[in-house]
Amino acid sequence: MIVAETPGGELRLTTQPDHAFFAAELLSLWAADGIPVNPRREDLLFATREHDNGWREADSAPSADRESGRPVDFMGIASADRLEIWRRGTERYRSGRPYASALILQHAIQIFAGATDPAGRAFADSLAGARGELLDASGADIATLLEDYSWLNLVDILSLVACGATPKPPADGRQARFVEDATHPLRGELELEPFPLAGATTFRVPCRVIPNRCYAGDADLAGEAATARWQEFSLRVGPFGCS
């Protein structure tokens, strides 16, 4: 779950799968850098859309931190739960989509690369072996995978910036800036330079808005989230200086 504070001080909840879907929509309209003619474009878009698929179950029942009472976001989830999420997420499509699954595994490998606990390190090692098997099944090589993964990683970061999860910019020299509409809790603009789309485009990301308060526990948070209606975060993507 991505938890972001709105200009009005409430909390906007965006599921990881919905964030990933926006990332895939953004990449699907990418008109530069050879993306439209990439021969593996279908698998790349599928992997981008599904790279956080393991969070479906976890995000369906958000939890509250026992000490702060704040909804737990994807960065604060317990290590054991994180492992379960990524085991599930890296196994779901292995039999039917080997190359797309290899891209999803590469994302998990990046996440667990710095793991210091024995379980995390063991999981990272198992992913590296599985990646080799999937590449053999798909007929692709590691250089091709890493090149394609760089695009999944880029739009993942851009989507996280837009959804309020991180201010971290991309690492490829591209400029990205999120400008939130101070007059509207569900409207904002993502500015990119160089601009890769054919024109400015408005996307709509599902979300829920709940009070920013201390929640007594999971049941308290679940009740609040259940009664909060689903809304859409209107996100315009355009070039720098267009807001």
Helix fraction, binned, reads 40-55%
How would the global form be characterised? globular
Q: What series of H and E elements makes up the topology?
A: EEHHHHHHHEEEHE
Report the C-alpha radius of gyration, rounded: 18 Å
Largest sheet: 6 strands, mixed
Number of strands: 6
Task: Enumerate the spans where pLDDT stays under 50 for 5 or more consecutive residues.
Answer: none
Distance between the termini: 28 Å
Please tell me the overall pLDDT: 93
Number of helices: 8
Residues in β-strands, percent = 15-25%
Structural class: alpha+beta
If strands are numbered along the chain, what order do they take across the biggest sheet? 1-2-5-6-4-3
Model description:
By secondary structure, the protein is α+β, with helices and mostly antiparallel strands. The chain is 44% helix and 16% strand. The protein has eight helices and six strands. The chain has helices at 16-28, 41-50, 55-59, 79-91, 98-112, 118-138, 142-162, 218-227; strands at 2-5, 11-14, 175-180, 187-193, 201-210, 231-239. A six-stranded mixed beta sheet has the order 1-2-5-6-4-3. The radius of gyration is 18 Å and the shape is globular. The two termini are 28 Å apart. The mean pLDDT is 93.
Keywords for this structure?
243 residues; six-stranded mixed beta sheet; alpha+beta
